[in-house]
Design goal:
This protein has about 400 residues and is mainly alpha-helical. It has 16 helices and no strands. Helix 1 crosses helix 6 and helix 6 crosses helix 15. The chain is globular.
Length: about 400
C-alpha cells in the first residue's frame, strides 16, 4: 500500500468519527433552540394580538421578520443599506461595528442579487441572527461536553438559549453573530489551533467591541493549553493576538481614514449615547438615580436589572478567579469593568448574553447533588425575566 493511499484511508476513517462527535451537539442544541424560539416568538405574537392595534400590525407585509425589530435594529438596517457615511445618515451610526450589517448585506445579495430593498435587508438581518444563534448553541454544547460531559453541556445550552436576555439571539441584533465567532475562537484555542482562533476572534472583533476582551481571554487560554501540553506558545500567542485584534483595529483605521478622527468611535458613542469613561462610583450613583427617578417605568426596570447583573458579573469573576479559570475571569471581568465605568450601567445586563463562560459556570452545578438547585433556580428566573423582556421589547419599550 502506498503512503498516499494509506493517508487517504486514514482520513476516511477519521472523518466519520469527527462527524459523529458533532451529532449530539447539533441535535441537542437544535432541539433546545427550536423549543425556546417557538416559545419566544409565540409569546411575542400573543402580546401583539392582545394589543388594540394588533390587527393593524399583522396586516403589514413584513410583520414576521420585524417582530423583534426595534432600537438598534434600525441602525443595523441603515448601515447595511447605505453604509456609514451616506448623505444624511446620523454620525452615531459609527458606534455600531460593521460585522453584522455586512453579513446581512452579503446574505441578502446571495439570495436576491445586488438589488436590495429594505424588506430584503430586514429578512437577511433576521436570517443571520437565526442561523448564528443555532450554530453558537451547537458550538457551546460541543465546547462544554468536551470538558464537563453531556449533562453540563445540555444545561449550559439551555441557559444560553433561554436566559433572561436571550431574546437578543432572536432579535435583529449583533449578539448572535458575535457569540458564534467568540465560541468558535474559544473552541479552536482549546484545541491549540491558534490561527483559526485568531481569525474567528478577528471576525468577532469586527462585530462588537467585546472582541478586545475576547482576545485578552483567548491569549491566556491558549498559553495555558500549550503549556499543559508542553508545546511552545510565545510566537503562536503573539500571532493569535495580532490576528485577533485586527477586526477591532481594522474598523478603527477605516473610521480614521473616512473621518480623520482617531477617536471617531468613542466620539460617536459620546454623541449618540452620552457614553464616556467615569469613576465606577459615579456610574453606580447615576444608575441608582435612574432606578429611583426615571419617569419611564421600562427604563427604571432595566436600570435595576443592570445593577443586579453587575453584582452577578463581579461575583462570577471572583468565583472564576478562585477556581483558577483565568481566561474566563478575564473575559467576564473586563466586560464588567468596561460597563461599570461608563456613564451608566445601560446594556450591562444585555452583555451577559455574549459572556458564555457565565452559563458554563452555572451549569457545572448540575454535577453536584447539593448545588444543582442553583442551576434550576437560575433557569427558572431566567425564563421569567426573558418573558418580561420579550413583552417589553415586542411593544417597543426599552429593554437594555
Amino acid at each position: 500500500m502506498t503512503s498516499q493511499s494509506a493517508n487517504s484511508r486514514s482520513i476516511s476513517l477519521h472523518l466519520p468519527a469527527a462527524l459523529s462527535a458533532w451529532r449530539r451537539p447539533v441535535l441537542g442544541a437544535l432541539s433546545i433552540w427550536i423549543v425556546v424560539r417557538a416559545v419566544v416568538v409565540g409569546w411575542a405574537l400573543i402580546v401583539h394580538a392582545l394589543q388594540p392595534a394588533g390587527s393593524t400590525y399583522f396586516a403589514q407585509p413584513n410583520w414576521f421578520y420585524t417582530l423583534f425589530f426595534h432600537w438598534d435594529s434600525n441602525y443595523f438596517e441603515g448601515i447595511a443599506r447605505t453604509g456609514y457615511f451616506a448623505s444624511g445618515t446620523p454620525v452615531r451610526w459609527e458606534a455600531f461595528f460593521p460585522g453584522y450589517p455586512l453579513a446581512a448585506r452579503g446574505f441578502a445579495a446571495l439570495i436576491w442579487g445586488p438589488h436590495l430593498t429594505t424588506t430584503r435587508i430586514d429578512i437577511a438581518l433576521w436570517l443571520v441572527s437565526a442561523v448564528a444563534s443555532a450554530v453558537a448553541a451547537a458550538l457551546l454544547w460541543r465546547l462544554v461536553e468536551d470538558r464537563y460531559g453531556v449533562k453540563v453541556a445540555a444545561g449550559a445550552t439551555a441557559l444560553f438559549l433561554a436566559g433572561p436576555y436571550s431574546l437578543f439571539l432572536v432579535a435583529s441584533y449583533s449578539e448572535a453573530l458575535f457569540v458564534v465567532f467568540a465560541i468558535g475562537a474559544w473552541l479552536a484555542a482549546t484545541r491549540g489551533h491558534w490561527l483559526a482562533s485568531g481569525i474567528l476572534a478577528a471576525l468577532a472583533g469586527l462585530t462588537r467591541i467585546n472582541g478586545l476582551f475576547l482576545v485578552a481571554a483567548l491569549a491566556v487560554l491558549f498559553i495555558g493549553v500549550q503549556r499543559k501540553q508542553g508545546k511552545p506558545f510565545l510566537a503562536r500567542t503573539v500571532g493569535l493576538v495580532g490576528i485577533g485584534l485586527s477586526g477591532v483595529l481594522g474598523y478603527f483605521v477605516y473610521l480614521f481614514i473616512m473621518t480623520g478622527d482617531p477617536s471617531a468611535w468613542t466620539h460617536a458613542q459620546s454623541i449618540g449615547w452620552h457614553r464616556a469613561l467615569n469613576w465606577p462610583w459615579d456610574t453606580l450613583l447615576r444608575t441608582i438615580g435612574q432606578v429611583l427617578y426615571d419617569p419611564v417605568p421600562a427604563w427604571r426596570l432595566q436600570a435595576a436589572l443592570d445593577i443586579v447583573f453587575a453584582v452577578l458579573l463581579v461575583t462570577a469573576t471572583v468565583i472564576m478567579a478562585r477556581r483558577k479559570l483565568w481566561a474566563e475571569a478575564i473575559m467576564v471581568g473586563l466586560t464588567a469593568l468596561s460597563m461599570m465605568t461608563s456613564t451608566t450601567y445601560m446594556s450591562l445586563a444585555r452583555d451577559s448574553i455574549v459572556l458564555f463562560p457565565l452559563v458554563i459556570l452555572v451549569a457545572t452545578t448540575l454535577v453536584s447533588p447539593r448545588r444543582k438547585w442553583i442551576f434550576w433556580v437560575a433557569l427558572a428566573l431566567g425564563c421569567v425575566v426573558l418573558l418580561i423582556n420579550v413583552h417589553q421589547f415586542t411593544l417597543g419599550q426599552w429593554t437594555d
